[in-house]
Here is the input.
Amino acid sequence: MIRCENLTKIFGDSVVLDNVSFSVSKGEIFSIVGPSGTGKSVTLKHLVGLFRPTSGKVFLQDEEVSSASGKKLEKIRERFGYLFQGGALLGWLSVAENVALPLKELTRLKEDEINRQVMDALDAVGLKDAADLFPAEISGGMQKRAGLARAIVRKCDIVLYDEPTSGLDPVTAITINNLIKRINKERGITSIVVTHDLANALLFSDRIMMIKDSKVVINATPDEFVASANKDVQEFLDAQFITEESYKRMKVEYEKKQ
Amino acid sequence: MVVTRESVFNKNGKSFFKVILLQMCEMFAAIGMSVIMMCEALSAFPLLFFKKDSRKNVFSQMYIVGIRTLPVITVVGLFTGMILGLQVGLALTKFNQESFLGAAVMLSLIREMAPFVTGICLSACVGSAIAAELGTMVVNDEVAALEIMSISPVRYLVAPRLGALAVMSPFLAFYACVLGVVGGGLIGWTQLAVPFRQYMVSAMSIALPKDLFVGLFKSLIFGIVIGVVSSREGFSTKLGATGVGKATQRSVIISFLLILVLGYMVTRAFYLEF
Here is the structure.
C-alpha cells in the first residue's frame, strides 16, 4: 500500500535518512523504532508529503507522494490520519471541538450525530471528562490522546502515529496501544507507528523496522526481530531489558488478555 | 493550495550565484503563493456564512480587528489630525489663510493620512499577531494537522482574518478620519484662534464623494494586503520560536512597504490626470 524507495533526506550537512526502503501492506501495523534523532518522524512526514526527499520516492499504491503537489497531494492526504508528537490541537477550541472539527468541516452530519461520534472517540481514549477543557488546561499526555481521538474520528485508510505513547503513564500507554490494535482490526486501517516503546511495539505490530544512523538496520516480524543476531538490534533490546524468553512470556500474557 | 509542503528551493551546498538565483526564484514563488492564497481566501468568503462555526469565527476576527484596535486608532487618528492642524495652521497663519485650515486637514486625512495611519496601525497590531499566531501553529504542526484532515488552512484560517481586515479597515479609516478632523479643529480653535464652526464649514465644503471613496478603497486594499502578507509570512515560518519572530518582523516590514507603494499607486491612478 505504501512504498518508500531509496529515501534519502539531507538537512544542511546532516544526512537524516540514507537510502531507506520499505513497504507497508494494507491493514498492517508497521512500527518504526530506533534511537532518538535517527529520522523516524522525518520518515513519517515524507509519507504525507510534509517533506520532499533529497532523493528517492514515496508511493501510496501507484501514486507518487514525493512529487505530488496541489490538488493531487490534497487527495492523497485525505486518505491519512496523523497523530503528531504534541497532539497539534488548535488552542482556541475545546477538546471536544477539536475532535469534532473534521466532522463539522468535512461532513454534513447533524449536531447530535457529531456529538455522539466525538464522545465515542473521547471515551475510547479516556478523555470524556475533559471534553470541555482547552488544550492549555490539560497535560501533554492528554493532548496526545485528544489528538489520537481526532485522528480516528474520521474515516481514513492509513493512520500515522508519531510517538503515540511517549510521555504517558504505563496504563494509558497500554490503553493507547490496545486502541491502535483495535481500530486496526475493526476498520482494517493500515497503521504506521513511530515509537520508542519497543516492548509494546513487539506485541501489537505485524512488522518492525529499526532505523539507526539514518539507515535501516532491520525490517522483520516481531519474532524475527527478537531472534536477530544484529548487534544494533541486540543493543536496543538489551537497553529495554527484553530477551527472547521475556518476549515469549509477554506475548503469552498479551494473547491471554486479548 | 497546499501550505505545508517543503520548499523546492534547496540552497544546501550550492554556490553563491546559485543561492542568489534560488533566492530570487523563492521571492517570485512567494509572490505567486500570496496571489493564489488571496484568490482562494476571497473565493471562500461566501462559504464562511453558511456554517455557524465559520460565522462565529469571522465575527470574532472582526472583533479583534475592529474593536480591539479602537483605542490605538483613536489616539493615532486624533493626534494625526492635531499634528496636521498645528503644522498646516502655523504655515497658513503666515499668509493669513487660517480659514482654509479645515479644508487642508480634511483633504490630507481623507485622501491619504487616515487610510495610511490605519494601515500602519493594523499592520503593527493585527498583521503581526496573525503572522505570529499562524507561525506558531506551523511550528506546532497544527497547520499540517489541518491539511492532513483535508481542511484547507487558507479557507479555515486565512479567509476569516482576511475578511475581517477587508471589512473593518475602511470603517476604521473613516473613524480615524473623523477623529483627525475633529482633532485638527480643536487645535485650530484652541491654539490658532480659528472658530470651530468656520473650520468645519471649510472642511466639509472641500471634500468630494470621490475623495471619500478613494480613501475607503485605499484602506480596503491595505486591509487585504496586511491579511495576505501576514498570513503568508506566518505560513512560511521555519525553525521554531526564532522563525516566528522573524516571520512577524518580515510581515510588518513588507506590509509597511506595500502600504506606501500601493498608497502612491492608488493616488496616482485616481488623481493624476493625463
In short: Chain A has two domains: 2-79+156-257, 86-154. The interface with chain B takes residues 10-13, 48-52, 54, 69-70, 73-74, 77-78, 80-82, 84-86, 88-91, 101-102, 104-106, 147, 150, 154 of chain A (CB under 8 Å).
